[in-house]
């Protein structure tokens, strides 16, 4: 009875939407098998963690109140009074960090496997833009509990934005909603965090996934017997073989998230007091630390320019180069890699790790 | 060229005008000029006066000593006919300083906010009264403030700066030979330096902490009478004072000739109070007057018991809350409530000065209610923690089982898929 009902529903939908064709396409979709296949799972992992963020974020919205008078108390309420509120909030905070870590790992794996080459340039661009959006998510979300650490980190972060030549002052005022970090900043950050950024992220993610589906997985040249074509090498079916493996990864990630939330619940800290002096050793979230540390150690003047301004411009340029890598790297092709871009990638990775480590020791 | 010269002239004129407005030429001051060239103690006043607040405000030697500073001739400059009085006698010093310092009109030009009743106050002081009787060994203005290098009391180098007052007073008061005949102890400094007040002043640098003049007065310095001690301590310890004067001890201490607060807390060597001072144990002070069976003895016991009970309960709550906090549980609101519980304990300790066990019971009950609620919250948090850990364990087992199942499923699918190839 139930089966016939679902069959009838399917037939009804298929008649109108031609779903069988889609299913047939999905059944044919394959994923190359080689020694680097493991990296393919990072994209799905990032998407899964983003999904966790969306779900937990929506749940937090049921209780969170975005004002300087209520934000801290509402998060405190979520952590103590709401059933499983502690779990939702801790998973959201830990999930954000894991998602950004997964996104970075995904980006570097794609970079070193040269998966950005033609015809996947736009897949890379949407991915990088998604990473930028994820970082903005992190920056805006950090302030929302309105605690001491996040308040001062936002103050420092927006101060740095104010140093950018020409647009700095406007940008700082725009970010803060005034000259200083106040309740107006919180309201603004909340707006971006729950409306603008999710909309942008959803569109980018859909475009990214559409392109991944349309173009298939890229295969590194060394594993395809000289031809950059997955059909020449070993493959596995995307559905169900690859998806089931993805699912295993997601379940493990879910277990890790749960364990982190239960054993190391995300701290709430002390409510922000704009009149208090800044606590010692303020640091941004770990994924911004390499930039923060660089600006800290740069000399005040480099030639005729402000050290800090030069640092910010350099990071801006690096971000732009990162975004345009597929168009700049004209050397890489089947069986051919660009030495410059390999070196650039290694230098960037080592630099980011080293600066982060230095900041924490 | 002409324009430039005119501009220079204008600028020059402007400088001359400004310098004449802002600099106040002191004029000839032969006293300082001559004494600076002398040796030893005759040179000393001229050296010191350059930092003197009076000198810095335009006054000089002749304003106190008289004479004519415009003359280089010593005979003329120090001519008694020109008002020269030489070194003033100690008995004349209060009047000499009071000539200006008691004159509100005169002081308005220099320091309008400074009081002008020092001379009157001095007359009421022990020092002033003895001086009036002809005792020239007592302190006069210059004994404490100095004569030629007088600085503002807020200047850390001033002899009457809070941190320097003890040494200034004990220059005489800690000298048994000098104080001979006055029949007062000379160990005040030794006792004070070991007191809680000195620790606040010198240890924490708290300039509002009491030093000699805070209790004895400065210009009207006197030993407090037995019945005014509570009022003196009450200047800072206002609540304790209010409770004490309304308590049965006020009357009893007066009848017994006991020095109010100092009966239990001492005078110069006041130690940080502890709960052990209360009660009927061997180290308690109540048993100095009360003995087994009397009303005060029982009251002392009851009050101490209540304090100890509240203290122990608050400690227990804190231990549980700290444990929960270390485990990552959110208990900041309960910890904040616990502060209120601790405030009740502090209030109870203050309320001891009313010596009323019923009042102590009331306030400690309020504290105990807080300790119970915070303890429960802490235990609930620990219970939640256990629940979370058990929940995590169950979830991880389920996840593990699903992962194993998926793994088997993947293997099964791939085995089926590879079979036709094998065939």
Listing every helix as H and every strand as E from the N terminus to the C terminus, the arrangement of chain B reads HHHHHHHHHHHHHHHHHHHHHHH
Oligomerization: heterodimer
In percent, how helical is the residue content of chain B? 55-70%
CATH superfamily of the domain at 33-216 and 235-271 in chain A: Cytochrome Bc1 Complex, Chain C
Please give the CATH architecture of the domain at 33-216 and 235-271 in chain A.
Up-down Bundle
Chain-wise SSE layout:
The complex is a heterodimer of chains A (361) and B (423).
Chain A (H helix, E strand, L loop, with lengths): L1 H16 L1 H10 L1 E3 L8 H21 L9 H10 L4 H28 L8 H23 L4 H14 L6 H9 L6 H33 L19 E3 H26 L22 H12 L3 E2 L2 E2 H17 L1 H4 L10 H22 L1
Antiparallel strand pairs in A: 1-2, 3-4
Chain B lengths: L1 H21 L7 H8 L2 H9 L4 H4 L4 H5 L8 H4 L15 H9 L2 H5 L9 H7 L1 H7 L8 H5 L16 H12 L2 H4 L8 H6 L2 H8 L8 H5 L12 H5 L4 H8 L2 H9 L3 H6 L29 H32 L5 H20 L5 H66 L1
Helix pairs in contact in B: 2-3, 9-10, 21-22, 21-23, 22-23
Brief rundown of the structure:
The complex is a heterodimer of chains A (361) and B (423). Chain A has 361 residues and is mainly α.
Question: Tags for this entry?
Answer:
heterodimer, A: 361 residues, mainly alpha, Cytochrome Bc1 Complex, Chain C, two-stranded antiparallel ribbon, two-stranded antiparallel sheet, B: 423 residues, 23 helices, 63% helix, elongated
């Amino acid at each position: 009875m139930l089966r016939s009902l679902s069959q009838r529903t399917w037939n009804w939908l298929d008649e109108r939407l031609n779903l069988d064709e889609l299913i047939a396409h999905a059944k044919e979709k394959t994923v190359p098998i080689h020694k680097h296949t493991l990296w393919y799972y990072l994209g799905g992992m990032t998407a899964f963690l983003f999904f966790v963020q969306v779900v937990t974020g929506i749940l937090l919205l049921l209780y969170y109140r975005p004002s300087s008078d209520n934000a801290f108390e509402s998060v405190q309420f979520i952590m103590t009074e709401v059933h499983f509120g502690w779990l939702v909030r801790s998973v959201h905070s830990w999930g954000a960090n894991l998602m950004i870590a997964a996104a970075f790992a995904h980006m570097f794996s794609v970079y070193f496997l040269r998966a950005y080459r033609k015809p996947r340039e736009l897949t890379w661009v949407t991915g990088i833009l998604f990473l930028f959006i994820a970082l903005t998510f992190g920056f805006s979300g950090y302030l929302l509990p309105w605690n001491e650490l996040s308040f001062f980190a936002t103050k420092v972060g927006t101060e740095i934005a104010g140093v950018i030549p020409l647009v700095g002052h406007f940008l700082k005022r725009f970010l803060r909603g005034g000259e200083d970090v106040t309740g107006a900043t919180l309201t603004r950050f909340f707006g971006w965090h729950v409306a603008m950024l999710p909309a942008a992220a959803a569109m980018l993610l859909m475009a990214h996934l559409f392109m991944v589906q349309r173009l298939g997985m890229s295969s590194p040249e060394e594993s395809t017997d000289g031809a950059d074509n997955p059909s020449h090498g070993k493959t596995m079916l995307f559905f169900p073989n690859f998806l089931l493996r993805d699912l295993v990864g997601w379940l493990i990630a879910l277990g890790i998230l749960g364990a982190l939330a239960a054993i190391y619940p995300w701290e709430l800290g002390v409510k922000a007091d704009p009149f208090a002096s800044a606590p010692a050793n303020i640091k941004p979230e770990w994924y911004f630390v390499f930039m923060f540390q660089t600006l800290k150690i740069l000399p005040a003047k480099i030639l005729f320019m402000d050290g800090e301004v030069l640092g910010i411009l350099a990071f801006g340029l690096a971000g732009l180069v990162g975004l345009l890598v597929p168009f700049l790297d004209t050397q890489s092709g089947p069986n051919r890699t660009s030495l410059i871009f390999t070196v650039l990638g290694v230098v960037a990775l080592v630099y980011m790790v080293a600066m982060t480590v230095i900041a924490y020791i | 060229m002409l324009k430039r010269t005119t501009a220079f002239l204008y600028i020059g004129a402007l400088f001359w005008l400004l310098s004449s407005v802002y600099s106040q030429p002191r004029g000839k001051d032969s006293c300082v000029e001559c004494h600076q060239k002398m040796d030893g103690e005759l040179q000393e006043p001229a050296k010191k006066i350059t930092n003197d607040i009076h000198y810095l405000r335009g006054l000089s030697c002749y304003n106190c000593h008289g004479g004519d500073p415009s003359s280089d001739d010593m005979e003329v400059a120090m001519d008694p006919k020109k008002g020269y009085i030489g070194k003033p006698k100690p008995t004349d010093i209060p009047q000499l300083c009071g000539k200006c310092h008691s004159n509100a009109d005169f002081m308005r030009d220099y320091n309008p906010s400074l009081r002008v009743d020092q001379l009157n106050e001095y007359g009421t002081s022990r020092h002033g009264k003895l001086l009036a009787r002809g005792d020239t060994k007592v302190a006069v203005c210059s004994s404490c403030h100095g004569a030629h290098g007088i600085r503002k009391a807020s200047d850390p180098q001033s002899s009457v700066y809070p941190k320097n007052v003890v040494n200034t007073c004990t220059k005489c008061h800690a000298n048994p030979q000098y104080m001979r005949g006055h029949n007062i102890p000379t160990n005040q400094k030794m006792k004070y330096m070991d007191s809680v007040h000195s620790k606040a002043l010198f240890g924490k640098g708290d300039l509002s902490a009491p030093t000699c003049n805070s209790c004895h007065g400065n210009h009207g310095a006197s030993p407090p009478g037995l019945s005014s001690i509570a009022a003196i301590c009450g200047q800072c310890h206002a609540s304790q004072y209010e409770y004490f004067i309304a308590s049965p001890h006020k009357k009893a201490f007066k009848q017994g000739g006991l020095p109010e607060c100092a009966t239990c807390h001492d005078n110069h060597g006041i130690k940080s109070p502890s709960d052990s001072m209360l009660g009927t144990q061997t180290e308690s002070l109540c048993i100095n007057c009360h003995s087994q069976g009397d009303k005060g003895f029982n009251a002392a016991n009851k009050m101490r018991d209540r304090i100890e009970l509240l203290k122990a309960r608050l400690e227990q709550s804190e231990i549980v809350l700290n444990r929960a906090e270390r485990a990552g549980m959110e208990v900041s609101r309960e910890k904040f409530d616990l502060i209120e519980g601790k405030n009740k304990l502090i209030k109870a300790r203050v309320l001891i000065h009313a010596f009323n066990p019923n009042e102590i019971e009331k306030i400690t009950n309020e504290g105990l209610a807080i300790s119970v609620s915070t303890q429960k919250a802490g235990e609930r948090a620990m219970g939640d923690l256990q629940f979370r850990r058990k929940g995590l364990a169950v979830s991880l087992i389920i996840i593990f089982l699903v992962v194993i199942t998926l793994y088997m499923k993947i293997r099964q699918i791939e085995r089926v898929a590879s079979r036709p190839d094998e065939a």
